[in-house]
Amino acid sequence: MNNLYLKSFIKCKRKAWLDYKGNKSYEIWSPHQSIEIVNRYKLFYKLSEGDLYAGTKACQKGSNGVIGLKVKSKLINNINAEIHPQLLKRVNGQSKWGEYKYIPVVYKLGHRTTKEHLLDLAFCSILLEPFQESNIEKGFVISNYANRINIEKIDLNKRLKKKVINIFLNLNEYLKGSMPEITKDRKKCTICSWQKFCDAEAKNHGYLTEINGIGSKTALLLQENGISNIKELAAADKTELGEKLFQFKEQKFEIASKFINQSKSYLSATPIQINQKENLSQFLSTKASGFFIFDIESNPDEKHDFLYGFLRINNLFEKIEDDFYDPILNLKKNGKKSHQEIFQKLFSKENWPVLHYGETEKIAIINLAKQLHLDSKKIESLKYRFVDIHLMIRGSWILPIRNYSLKTVANWMGFKWKQKNVSGSKALYWWIQYKTTLNDIFLKKIIKYNRDDCLATLHIVRWLIKNNKKY
Ligand code: SF4
User: Does CATH number 3.40.50.150 belong to domain 3-176?
Assistant: First the structure.
């Protein structure tokens, strides 16, 4: 049993079981994992000041950083244990190799240090101590913050070590048993490689967390009140359910109605229109004859928007030609040339609305306009031109889907991305590969993906207008 299963177990018991015993053909490649591996290696290399080598020989040599080491040992109850520490960092001390020793280091993507990081460090330290014949009191959690290494020192005390041993014993028991249930906190599933497999099961069982807006706490509350699946939720009475959802205060009846409608839509696979006021075609025709569709690709860790994609639509139902799409690449952060191009593009059609999916695009452009000290009147006029299609669909329709991301909504409406299994994370993965190799093939993939995101947004707009017509 190794620390990788332990990490999975801390995240989700079922994940550890599936990693260990599951049918691997149901597992899907996760770009998150690949992004993490690439970023991690870069940061480890930096932290080791280039003196980064692999395996036991590197420890004997006294390399500044050591990766790729495996250490096996027997733990309590004679259970075999193994660690694959992400990185060992040389520090002052005394070990079997000489006047130095190693401490474990883990990488974190994002800002939050979690239980998983702390327990991984503690578990690695337990096996490393006899291996290097030296005590380990500290470990590091490192992350990349604005291109600098952020180091957090973690105290690997007895309490933490005892805790991880108990979890390890618990993991061993779980792995002997049958597959654990799907986690109650389905947020964890978004970046899990078993997501598709678990989604199919959740759908079959009609779990409440399949309903948009229902997280683990709300599901528990509903279960305590006798509603344990989607069918029962669909049949609930709005007023009675509203009373049970007291934590939503004055919005409780509105939310109850949303949950009921969402369940009905989910079960019948039929969309439900909840608001007839939003009429996109009227909005577009009163504003102007044409509009832009706009979508950004970015690297959130480095706060770098590397592609701004514009789709020019002169007439809503015209055929889209290749030259309607214009990708503005921003290869270097704060590239002035690309920023000028963006505003030239936006102000080339001053009255055209700018349609986008989600709030990011508007926020990014308004911030950029402020950074460039654009005239305040121009900024104000820009603000009114942005139309968030995500908000519009959420405010007017309930669709038989689990979430309202661009991918899920457009897919449900019949749009197909030209490249298979794509996502924002995959575009980010291509971007990281481009930065490492400078091979234009990755930029081409990103541009193709971004163009499809713009076309997917247009597909939703057309659907909204077509289906609103009858009102
Ligand atoms: S998809 Fe969710 S429930 Fe399934 S293994 Fe992953 S985290 Fe656990």
Answer: no
**Measuring CA to CA, how many Å separate 168 from each of 14, 25, 230?**
15, 27, 35
Please answer whether residues 194 and 23 qualify as being in contact, where contact means their C-beta atoms are separated by less than 8 angstroms. Answer: no
Q: Is the CB of 15 under 6 A from ligand 1?
A: yes
In 3D space, the residue among 37, 17, 34 whose CA is nearest the CA of residue 84 turns out to be 37
Ligand 1 centroid to Cα of residue 169, in Å, is 21
CATH code for residues 197-268:
1.10.150.20
Q: Which two tokens stand for residue 312?
A: 């020019």
Phi, psi angle pair for 212, to nearest 5°? -55, 130
Q: Tokens for 139, please give them.
A: 């470990």
Which atom of ligand 1 lies at the shortest distance from residue 189's CA?
2
**What span, in angstroms and rounded, lies between the C-alpha atoms of 427 and 434?**
10
Q: What tokens were used for 144?
A: 């990349």
What would the pLDDT profile of 84-116 be if each residue is shown by its tens digit? 999 999 999 999 999 999 999 999 987 889 999
CB of 47 shorter than 6 A to ligand 1: no
Ligand 1 within 6 A of 12 CB? yes
Domain ranges of the chain: 3-176, 197-268, 280-468
Model confidence pLDDT, tens digit, residues 145-182: 767 899 999 999 999 999 999 999 999 999 999 999 99
- Is the distance from the beta carbon of residue 325 to the nearest atom of ligand 1 less than 6 Å? no
Tokens 């078993």 sit at which residue?
Answer: 194
The fold adopted by the segment(s) 280-468 is Nucleotidyltransferase; domain 5 (3.30.420)
**Which atom of ligand 1 is closest in space to residue 183's alpha carbon?**
3
